[in-house]
Amino acid sequence: MRAEGLSKRTITEWPRVVLRAARWVDAGPDRLSTIELIDYLAGLPSASTRQTYYSALQAWHRWLLATGRRTDNPLDGLRRPRAPRREPHPVATGHVEVLLASGIRRRTRTAVLLCAYEGLRVHEAAKVRGEDVDFVGQRLRVVGKGGVEKWLPLHPVIATEARRYPRRGYWFPSPKRPGRPIRRDSLSAVISRAMRRCDIPGTAHSLRHWFGTELMRSGANARETQELLRHASLNTVAIYTLVAAEAQHAAINRLPMVGPAPAGPSTPERTAS
Predict the structure, then answer these.
(1) Using CB atoms within 10 A as the burial measure, which of 58, 84, 102, 264 is most buried?
(2) Would you state the pLDDT for residue 272?
């Protein structure tokens, strides 16, 4: 997995998935059968979890097959589990305003701003350091999935926030692990608690959805939004963007009028162009 450049999280989590399946089946991890795996995947709580676990188990059995530890892959007859189409769930702009005005602590506020104005995932925000801010070039370096680095335009709000922190070191240092950043789950929980106190629906990731949605509303095209969200596929952008209802109505109303005129008072006949 390291040779393939998979993320540290994947390298840690996939073996755990295999061991969980083996414990559930009560068999060795190299002796899982097709029926047992089908039963195990079917019993998982959500479609997204089934997809994630299927990927881990598929990678494991392909490795067993490639290294001669098995002569068959028990998942060959099982297609990748389907998941329902994900819908965007951005918070409202008013929610962001309420959250920022609620008296949250400085570091919590900074994390909220990073997610909302740079579109960072929580684990990316947790790793931001003073060295990642380029005031001259007006850029912010982000370490994303798989350790991939990307420079993003520095929003003025974030530039102002950055001047309140040292030029070196993590903005969110771990209180228990010297020299390391706070864990993503801890930062996510802090933001979620602040949102609940303000009766704001959603999670910390909803701030990233707000970022994508507002980019599109402000006139950014899908390609620009894809680059700023740092997605490999343009199709994925649809998950993070929500077109306003009024924009949908405006788009419909721009369609040319053809065919019979709508029922109503008699008007002079016009030829459709």
Answers:
(1) 58
(2) 41
